[in-house]
Amino acid sequence: MDIVDAARRREGRSRVGEINRAVNLAIRPMSDVAQYGVPDLWTAPIQTLTAGAGDCEDYAIAKYVALEEAGVAEEDLRLVVVRDTRRREDHAVVAVRLDGRWLVLDNRWLALVEDVELETYLPMFGMNREGVRRFVAAQQRVFSRGATEPAPAPLRSQKQPLEHAS
Hints:
- This protein is α+β, with helices and mostly antiparallel strands.
- It has a single domain (2-134), classed as Roll (C8orf32 fold).
- The chain contains five helices and eight strands.
- A six-stranded antiparallel beta sheet has the order 6-5-4-3-7-8, covered by helices on one side.
- A hairpin with a 7-residue loop joins strand 5 (101-105) and strand 6 (113-114).
- The longest helix is centred in the N-terminal third of the chain and has 15 residues, at 12-26.
- The radius of gyration is 15 Å and the shape is globular.
- The relative contact order is 0.13.
- Residues 138-166 have low confidence and may be disordered.
């Protein structure tokens, strides 16, 4: 709640940055195998923050809930599972819409990065309170609304905004 309270005292990008920084610094990276002895386990934010450790989706879930509790509108939040094409692994991040642009909050860095700058991230699934949606490769803006068709291969060009269908 300290993270949420600190964020509530801020507005806009500063609020989002406060949560990204605070969550990133409150949790140390640890795989689910090392922490729980299982390949994958999504935990509640209170469990992750109490343990002080987690993997990418644990960071993302904590940020999503903190942003929502701090007053970010539900329709402006997405938990996104991406394929990191550089590292050849799946990864979870949070996207928040601010001033019509989608910012990506990642446990790998403290900076707030616009979706169009993430050339090595191919979005696969987007989640919010409405459910889970799969991204369509033919759609170019990933974070606006969920898509319903499979994404067989990346089709976007560099520096082009990402989007998906409603």
